[in-house]
Design a protein that fits this description.
The chain is α/β, with parallel strands linked by helices and 416 residues long. It contains 13 helices and 17 strands. 48% of the residues are buried.
Length: 416
């Protein structure tokens, strides 16, 4: 779990660490350091054990120290780690082929992070129209509550004033509309519009899920107006919602998709997937990455797919997601003073709270449960995809105690 600098911290030690650390003071870190992990559990040096329903912000798709990932990484480390994209990289070629086989895509570009994958998606959409002789079509329609990364382009796409402040004029080319408002999308289309960019499930924005019907209508609108549909599935992709891509729930076929987080299982790895038609403008020399798709990263990515694409794995995630939804609904009914609503899909859920979300996250952490904050006063639950029913039961029991602690009436002054 992490807190933004604008969050109130229960632990004043975190502020002292900000002032004394050699790191940039851009995070207010909780005063906990982990020395060991196993599956869904993390352990401190003193032996304290935490159930990890944060997963490094939806990154640890296979949990901690997964034996297949560890073995793959060890084997890859005994071969060339990096050769650059000036040469063939068989591990990257194979991983790209598997992503194509598993999705709508024809071609893949590898990067190091979600922000880089989204940057590639933006460039792909713009370059498509330039290749069609319409370079004036460069604007993308985005949605309120979006989070697409922290680069200058992606903070402009997200449109959050807090992330834009102090970095000069926002990069031009993004037109933001209200969440899931098709009429607003249609009204925002001009002769300069190239496409739309959205997260099927907004992560940082508060676990808001775009309705399936809206996504279908948006796809039809894009087709009618010659726009590309680009999806940011950095957080919702690679099985997180019980489908390999969250857009599959709506039966929608995008033109471009950005992936990262769970794709590397903890190793930095991003990917931009596209149809061959959508990527027609991304020709020799139009884009590049020094580290993107190197042998080490793509070997680990292949190991993640070995597990996620194995028979029955995604169906199991979907089933566990149904159980988690049921248990969270019970918590909602039991603690209406703390929990306002339950949102999400698969193993990607959020609790919209009636108390400050930082208070619930801190109470959960005091009970040994790690969570993640999100916008719209939401606490995210993003467990590893390898959990079982016992982990869900344990997490909800700990949340129950955390909610009870927050819902209890304040003890009067002077009470014994």
């Amino acid at each position: 779990m992490f807190f933004g600098l604008d969050r109130k911290l229960a632990d004043p030690l975190a502020w002292s660490m900000i002032l004394t650390s050699a790191l940039y003071p851009t995070y207010a870190r909780a005063d906990i350091a982990f020395t060991r992990g196993e599956g869904a559990w993390l352990y401190t040096e003193s032996g304290d054990r935490y159930l990890d329903f944060a997963s490094g912000v939806a990154v640890l798709s296979l949990g901690h120290e997964h034996p297949h990932l560890v073995a793959t990484l060890k084997a890859a480390a005994e071969k060339p780690w990096h050769v650059s994209n000036l040469f063939r990289i068989p591990q990257a070629e194979r991983l790209a082929e598997r992503l194509v086989e598993a999705t709508f895509a024809d071609v893949v570009f590898f990067a190091n992070s979600g922000a880089e994958a989204v940057e590639c998606a933006i460039k792909t959409v713009r370059k498509y129209h330039a290749a069609n002789g319409q370079p004036q079509r460069y604007r993308l329609i985005t949605f309120e509550g979006a989070f697409h990364g922290r680069t200058l382009a992606t903070i402009a796409a997200g449109g959050n004033a807090k992330y834009l402040d102090g970095f000069g004029p926002p990069l031009d080319g993004f037109d933001q509309v209200p969440f899931a408002d098709l009429e607003a999308v249609e009204a925002a289309i001009t002769e300069e519009t190239a496409g739309v960019l959205l997260e099927p499930v907004q992560g940082e924005g508060g676990l808001r899920v775009f309705p399936n019907g809206f996504l279908k209508e948006l796809r039809a609108l894009c087709d009618a107006r010659g726009l590309l549909m680009a999806l940011d599935e950095v957080q919702s992709g690679v099985g997180r919602t019980g489908k390999f891509l969250a857009c599959e729930h709506a039966g929608v076929t995008p033109d471009v998709v950005a992936l990262a987080k769970g794709l590397g299982g903890g190793f930095p790895l991003g990917a931009c997937l596209a149809t061959r038609e959508a990527a027609k403008g991304m020709t020799l020399g139009t884009h590049g990455s020094t580290f993107g798709g190197n042998p080490l990263a793509t070997a680990v990515g292949g190991a993640v797919l070995d597990v996620v694409l194995s028979e029955g794995f995604l169906a199991r995630v979907a089933s566990l997601g149904g159980l988690l939804r049921q248990r969270l609904a019970e918590l909602h009914d039991r603690h209406p003073r703390v929990i306002e609503a339950v949102r999400g899909e698969g193993l990607m859920f959020g609790l919209k709270t009636r108390v400050p979300n930082g208070d619930l996250a801190a109470a959960a952490r005091a009970e040994g449960l790690l969570t993640v904050l999100a916008g719209d006063n939401v606490v995210r639950l993003l467990p590893p995809l390898i959990i079982d029913e016992s982990h869900i039961s344990e997490a909800c029991n700990r949340l129950d105690r955390a909610c009870a602690r927050l819902a209890a009436p304040a003890e009067p002054l002077g009470a014994a």
